[in-house]
Write a structure and sequence with these properties.
This protein is an alpha/beta fold and about 350 residues long. The chain is about 35% helix and about 15% strand. The strands form three sheets. A seven-stranded mixed sheet has the order 3-2-4-5-6-7-8, sandwiched between helices. It has a three-stranded antiparallel sheet with strand order 9-10-12. A two-stranded parallel sheet has the order 1-11. The chain starts with 10 loop residues before the first strand and ends with a helix. It binds pyridoxal-5'-phosphate.
Length: about 350
Amino acid sequence: MSRIIKKENKIGGEYEINPQELNDLEILKTPNKTSMFSNGRSALMFILKQISIQNTSIVYLPYYICPSVVSACKNSKFKVKFYELDEKFLFPINLLSKIEHNSSIILVNYFGFINNNKIIKTIKNKRPDIITINDSVQSFWTFNKSIADYSFTSLRKQFAIPDGALVYHNNKIIKPSSKIKENNFFTKKVQASVSKFKKEEDYIYLNLFEEGEKILDNEKSITKASIIAESIFNKTDFETITTKRKENYKTIYELGQKHSLDFIFPYSEEIIPLCVPIKINNRNKIRKELFQNNIFLPIHWISGYYNRKSKMSKEMADNEISLIIDQRYSEDAMIFQIKTLISLIN
Ligand SMILES: Cc1ncc(COP(=O)(O)O)c(C=O)c1O
């Protein structure tokens, strides 16, 4: 390989934050009046709280879902029922007659590839009693194009922002009320991202990220974003990020196709994915070998107690791995990622 990616340059993992970005602390002196919730779960808990005022506390979730979403529904004291997706990762419309009256359905835009609007339109026509919620955590770029009654997204997976989530309802973004307290996980996340930026020892920032995640996991109430998150978000150059993600996605797809990688979703120019999922054999072994090469690819999601009987969830839990295409990386990094993966598979 002529263009070598330096060993210390990692692909994947959480985002870094340049501490200089935090120098503009003027904003920190203002009271926290952020327009954002703290994270995806908090946004969802807020939505469920609104819904429970008038509707039944029953929510339908796909079996194939991040375990944290199941916890958020349970924290909100909702009865959770599950449905199996069809082969296109969509809600199977033939189940509609079995959905309880005045309940809610969560539909998910997986990795940014799944547009649920057509199915939501059908649900609204046939069953206007049902509330639809589009989980757009993996699809920031389309969260406000959803026709669901509610759509929500989370920022930290897409951007170098420690916290922050948005709720979209009736064509506008809903702000958390001033009574909602600020989350208490963002400080650890900021420290971790700065430590990663400074190239401190891996264990230092990994521990900090984990501590932050533990605080987040233990939070049972609705919280809002930090002013730091809001400030970084407002300064984000979305256009450059969009261009970079699209370029990387195209490079990854074209190279991967040449090597017959099993992409779960076909290529589309319109899509700005979170990451690009593929299926491989011996996934766990290859993933570990990729770690040795400083390539840290995520998987979505390991099986939980709630989805052991779901064929699709098992298939994804066993074989899925996602290629990284985000704005941090150059074309060379994309080539390195694919070449390394191919050399390990063969
Ligand atoms: C599809 C989906 N929904 C919701 C969440 C929860 O988001 P957060 O971790 O910001 O609470 C996640 C987290 O990864 C997710 O992947």
